[in-house]
Design goal:
The chain is an alpha/beta fold. It is 35% helix and 22% strand. The protein has 14 helices and 19 strands. The two termini are 28 Å apart.
Length: 434
């Protein structure tokens, strides 16, 4: 979602007369779009600005904007701590970028735009065509979160759940397809909580996917990130019916222990999570999963941790994100008693070794197989090309060419490492979606 937001901010800045540059040492405006999920993200902002100040020590100072969730969470504190920052702009206020830049050109005063104004934001963005021109593109369809997990800052930085209208989303998808998109990933903090009232009828996430599949030039559909509580039967059924919907799902579980899930306020049990996995596998037998895990959450015992290990072994996640519990100010869990850091680190190593072994084994099993690969781009400073197979695993192709970009071609898998497959092109475009 941060990548999507950054692209839209660039579109907005263009309206104020600015164009994107790769030369950060010679620029008029510097925008840092931030995330607040992890603790180090906040300090990274100040480190980046410190480097910027050094680079511009003997030059005219650029306008410096800090946008995103760090700006939302620490707005006034940031302005007080770092005088080099000209404005802080929350994730629901970045539609104001053109007017902010206009005001800052006059060097009037520091600006704080951190209201939760998601409706106005999307109304503004709907008047501005998405200029993204990638083969694989993103569309934000839902923002915010009403789940209030005890460890999570998202409800406080992104606000309550809000869904865009299906008309807005379909129109943006059409713009992206005209720009060359063949694959679209639908984004949301809880994307499967998407719900819109269309002419008095509730329009669900599954309805949106069913409508998107009718866009002929769109070949692949993905979505992220989902909450188990919103994994409804009609959405699971979508995985059976919609051929363009890829057989991969990122479904965060955080822990395999019912006690810890309850302490986290996750609103689902281990058994409910595994039932969802089983139902998805029945709907789409080749589906694969990734997840998020928090290790060493307050109160986690050795038994709780090994409940997580056993769940990982049962599901066989092919790619996952795992972190030591990190207290975030303002969340209920911030005041919980934490467990020993060395125990946390030891458990994380055990979990990550298991996850890495599963991922490596999955990639090894692909060797020799013929896979449909959507070619996204030529790799920088290389003759190789980059794409992904249906389950999202990245692949490097040694003998593709410029004409293959945007096409789904047959690739024979020749080699692998933990993160990536390597292959050679065999035939022309093969995959035809219904």
């Amino acid at each position: 979602m941060n990548e999507y937001d950054s692209n839209r901010i660039a579109d907005l800045a263009k309206q104020a007369g600015y164009i994107k540059t790769s030369n950060i040492n010679n620029t008029d405006c510097y925008i840092l779009n931030t995330c607040h999920i992890r603790e180090k993200a906040t300090e990274k902002v100040y480190h980046d600005i410190g480097r910027l100040k050094k680079n511009y020590k003997n030059k005219k100072k650029p306008i410096v904007l800090v946008t995103g969730c760090v700006a939302q969470a620490e707005n006034n504190e940031m302005l007080e701590r770092e005088s080099y920052i000209d404005a802080v702009i929350g994730p629901q206020s970045y539609h104001n970028v053109p007017s902010i830049l206009s005001k800052l050109n006059d060097r009037r005063k520091k600006l704080n735009f951190t209201d939760f104004d998601v409706v106005k934001k999307f109304d503004r963005l709907n008047t501005l065509k998405n200029s993204e021109s990638k083969v694989s593109s993103f569309i934000t369809v839902q923002e915010g979160c009403d789940k209030f997990c005890n460890f999570c800052v998202v409800p406080y930085t992104r606000g309550p759940e809000h869904s865009r209208s299906p008309e807005e989303i379909i129109e943006e998808a059409k713009d992206l397809i005209i720009n060359g998109a063949k694959e679209i990933t639908l984004l949301g903090q809880n994307v499967n909580a998407y719900s819109s009232n269309k002419k008095g009828k509730i329009y669900k996430f599954s309805d949106l996917i069913m409508e998107l599949q009718n866009l002929e030039e769109l070949k692949r559909i993905r979505y992220t990130t989902s909450h188990p509580k919103d994994m409804t039967n009609d959405l699971i059924d979508c995985h059976k019916k919609v051929k363009k919907l890829m057989p991969f799902l990122h479904l965060p579980v955080q822990s395999g222990s019912n006690k810890i899930l309850k302490n986290m306020n996750r609103k689902h049990t281990r058994e409910e999570y595994l039932s969802i996995i089983q139902n998805l596998e029945k709907a789409k037998p080749d589906i694969r999963f990734s997840s998020d895990f928090i290790v060493g959450y307050p109160g986690e015992t050795e038994e709780d941790f090994y409940d997580t290990i056993s769940l990982v072994k049962e599901v066989n996640f092919i790619n996952s994100f795992s972190f030591i519990y990190n207290p975030r100010p303002g969340t209920p869990a911030f005041n919980f008693e934490t467990i020993n850091k060395e125990i946390q680190k030891k458990r994380l190593i055990i979990l990550q070794n298991l996850l890495e072994n599963i991922q490596t084994k999955e990639n090894k099993n692909q060797v020799g197989k013929l896979k449909g690969v959507l070619i996204e781009n030529k790799m920088k400073n290389q003759s190789n090309y980059f794409g992904r197979i249906r389950n999202l695993t990245p692949i490097v192709i040694s003998n593709a060419n410029e004409k293959d970009i945007g096409k789904i071609i047959d690739v024979r898998i020749k080699n692998y490492n933990r993160n990536t497959l390597f292959g050679v092109k065999e035939n022309a475009e093969r995959e035809v979606a219904a």
